[in-house]
Amino acid sequence: MYFALTDEQRALAETVRDFLADRFDLTAVRAVFEDTAGDGHPAELWKAFAEQGWLAVLVPEENDGMGLGLLDAQVLARAFGAGAVPGPWLPTVLVGEAVRLAGSPAQRAAVLGPLAAGELVATVALRAPGGSFDQSGVGVTADIDPGGTRLTGTASPVEYAGVARTAVVAAKEPDGGIGLYLVDPTSASVTVTALDTYDGTTRLGALTLDGAAGERLPESNAAVLAELSRRGAVLAAADLVGTARAALTRTIEYDKTRVQFGKAVGSFQFIKHTLADLHVGVLMAEHAALYAAHAVDAALPDAALAVAVAKAKANDAAERATGAMIQYHGGIGYTWEHEAHFFYKRAKRLVGTFGDAGEHLDRIAALSIDA
Amino acid sequence: MDLTFTPQEEKFRSELRGWLDANIPAAWRDPSFWRSVSDDEGFELRRDWERRKHDAGFAGIAWPTEYGGRGGTPGMKAIYDEEMALAHAPQSANALGLTFLAPTVMAIGTDQQKRDIIGPMLRNEVIWCQGFSEPGAGSDLAALRTSGVLDGDEYVVNGQKIWTTNAMHGDKLFTLVRTEPGPGPGRQAEGGISPVGTNNDQSGALEAGTARRDPEARRSHGMHRGISMLLVDMRQPGVETRPLRQLSGASEFGEVFFTDARVKASECLGGVGNGWKTAMLLLSFERGASGISQYATYRRGYDEIVAAARRLGRDTDPTLRRELASRLVELECLRYHAMHVLTQVEQGRDLGSESSITKLQWSETYQKLFETFDHLLGLDGVVTSPVDGLDLASLQFEAFWTRSVTIWGGSSQVQRNIVAERVLGLPR
Description:
The structure holds two protein chains of two kinds. By secondary structure, chain A is of the alpha+beta class. Chain A is 52% helix and 15% strand. Chain A folds into three domains: 7-120, Orthogonal Bundle (Butyryl-Coa Dehydrogenase, subunit A, domain 1), CATH 1.10.540.10; 123-220, Butyryl-CoA Dehydrogenase, subunit A, domain 2 (Beta Barrel); 223-370, Butyryl-CoA Dehydrogenase, subunit A, domain 3, CATH 1.20.140.10. By secondary structure, chain B is α+β, with helices and mostly antiparallel strands. Chain B folds into three domains: 7-93, Butyryl-Coa Dehydrogenase, subunit A, domain 1 (Orthogonal Bundle); 128-273, Butyryl-CoA Dehydrogenase, subunit A, domain 2 (Beta Barrel); 290-423, Butyryl-CoA Dehydrogenase, subunit A, domain 3. Chain B is 44% helix and 13% strand. Chain B is globular and about 70 Å long. Classes of the chains: A alpha+beta, B alpha+beta.
């Protein structure tokens, strides 16, 4: 029995932490956060990601990647969450997963190598506004023309739609099935509309396709979409877990030194008990993200349940921890100048990404009550 | 990441499973069986069954062979815990002794104590009780007043213990008594609940300069001083036991009264005046792989609750389904946490105060699961058999039992203090 990260995985986490502390701390995050007109994609950060191999983690070795698993990728996602890091890492990595899972050898060669090297920013467009992250939420339709497949419909919100040069779009097909398509978001039949969002640690857009050309990933189907969404959910959960841990750690440190009524506020029993409960919750979410990543990597029989558990738990832990960060900093935690809102807003966004609590709880209920 | 057990451990699992299959009477697997027999009968059945299990080689799984154990791995202990739960094996008749006293004796007992205590305990010849809590010393354990006064080569013990599990069936009691007078009745509580194992010592205020920086130093002062752990024969005229009826209707625990009870001075574990340290060592043994068996047991409870709801057509309400699903989230987290704990144990790491996290996770999850039982079944959950063929009595009984698990073994509030102060480093 070994339920823990390896020494290498722990070292990876430390490398990211040290890198961020040194090269992209919260001051740098703030600059991106407040530059609402900017693309939210610091070039020097992306370059460093590529150099460190953080874009290559899931790309197979034959495509010049590192060939590691979701367990390693969740180490990165967790560290990025803890640093409130902006940039299109998650959607780019997921495009790599889609192509790896369902692409032809030619598509793999065309996409995965450049993606691992940091030469390709990409994104996933899987749901329509209001939709869930499964087959039923897909809002794009594929029409098979003699001249090629034409995609029509809307996907939103799409992370970094404005800077992505490739998008993987989920579309309903004439036979009732689902296909995943490579789409060029800069083509004339695709409109990218930047969406105003409160979370400055990302950039979001709507992708409107009007008969856009799409290159089908030949092995894609509804099951691949589900698998891709599961992987997205694990990485979003890991990011949330990192966000939650950072929020909690910062709050504990503050409450050890903030004095009111002549005592550190962290000595008051109600605050202690709240922080203790949060610690237990975040710890369980950390376990759950770890287990889910492994369950997907190893295709364990309970992988679907594990992913739903991890996302539901991470959602809850992050919501509570980032809310508590504001509350237990008092008035200063509610100011723009304080960093609490970076974590709070990032968590709010990611809670809905790849399935909110209700969606995952419904899945858990179906798996455990109806089965 | 490797969530498998070794081939040797899996071989142990199949041997154990085979033995349990052949040796647990079918009637015992019906949850209503244990309610159909009296407390005394049930206890004797469990006592005899456990003795047979010992004779078959399935006792003291991870203990050294020199103490009568099997010399197994922590993984085997985890498997043992899980299989016992899956097989509906009865609760141990000697759980307090096996879980707490034995490892403490192995760690710090004298050779004579090791010989005298461990073998008879494993064979259930001596049933052990724990005498820690008193009417005035619950969460604030160090406030205990039971006294032991040396008279020749014996201590004369006077006082009272309470919440003593198996008090009516016990043969011996490991108990904390004050063998030197404490700081006296002038002492005041420090505000709020003091955790078991943390200092709640006003008399230490004068030494605060050094003591507050060093918890170990503080622990050796004041109220924690002068306590000894004595091993008292309960079958003597100076020891009287009375059952306490719990709100569930069962009488698993009771009160123990000492009136000039006598115990040989050699029957002191860990040294005179070291009782607090000994008690903290003893309590630290409540960790390891127990989360795995708890998951197996509670998951069965979850499935039974779901089955009952289905019988009543109440399994389709979307709100209740989500509530139930959120209980399963916590249960699965308990399972992952148990694997984490087992990994730490196998790596030889001391979990220390982190065991409070385990306690919070299992006890709060277990209790909330049965709150959901109430929500799910509504009025139909109030009667024992709402429809023909559905018997809810065992689940109802278990639901009452879950109200106790956030109290005993250190209440949830005590555990939160420990997590806040010792794990998170928040100031006292």
